[in-house]
Every structure is written in C-alpha cells, then in structure tokens.
Amino acid sequence: MSIQTSITIPDDLAAIIEMLEIEKGRSKSQIIIYLIEKGIVPAMEEINKIETVKSLIEKKTKENSLTSNSPKNDEDNGKSKPRGSSKTSKGA
After folding, report:
1. What angle do CA 45, 20, 44 make, to 5 degrees?
2. What is the pLDDT of residues 54-63, one digit of tens each?
3. How far apart are CA 14 and CA 20, in angstroms?
C-alpha cells in the first residue's frame, strides 16, 4: 500500500534530487523515497535519544520535587530541639 502526497522542497534540496535523478537514472519519486529510507533510521534513533533524555529529565524533576517536599531533618518535622538548652558548667 502507498499514499500520494505533495510537499514543498527547498531549492537546494531540489537541486540535489535533480542531480541524483540524472546520475542514477531514476525518477524523482524513487530518489525521494530512497533518501527518506536512508534517513529514517538515524532520524528515529535521534528521536529515541531525545525521548530518553526527556524521560530522564522528567524523572529527575519528579524526584527533586518529592525530595524538596519531604522533611529533611527533625527541625522540619516540628521536633526541633530547644536552642540554648545545652548546659555548660563554668567553674563548678
């Protein structure tokens, strides 16, 4: 199965496609399909890397927000020790 679509190609890419048409003796459609097939695997790998990085960033952000919302010490829990309660004996 295939679909037919219309795209606008920048002039510099169109020139490359025309050059490949002449050099390879293939149709514009065949050249464009070839180029897409050659580029799709690296493009998908790049997308997967980007998605992996986004996922790691989201995970780290969630961990940081959970950590910053949780009590870190007794003072945060309302269990702080009274200040100045330690007794020092001077000259007893």
Report:
1. 10
2. 999 999 998 8
3. 10
Residues 39 and 17: their CA atoms lie apart, in Å, by 14
Q: Would you say 81 and 74 are in contact if contact means Cβ atoms under 8 Å apart?
A: yes
DSSP result, 9-34 = --HHHHHHHHHHHHHHT--HHHHHHH
DSSP secondary structure letter of residue 70: S
Q: How many residues does the chain have?
A: 92
Give tens-digit pLDDT for 73-87: 555 555 555 555 555
- Report residue 92's pLDDT band, with 50, 70 and 90 as the boundaries: very low
pTM for the model stands at 0.53
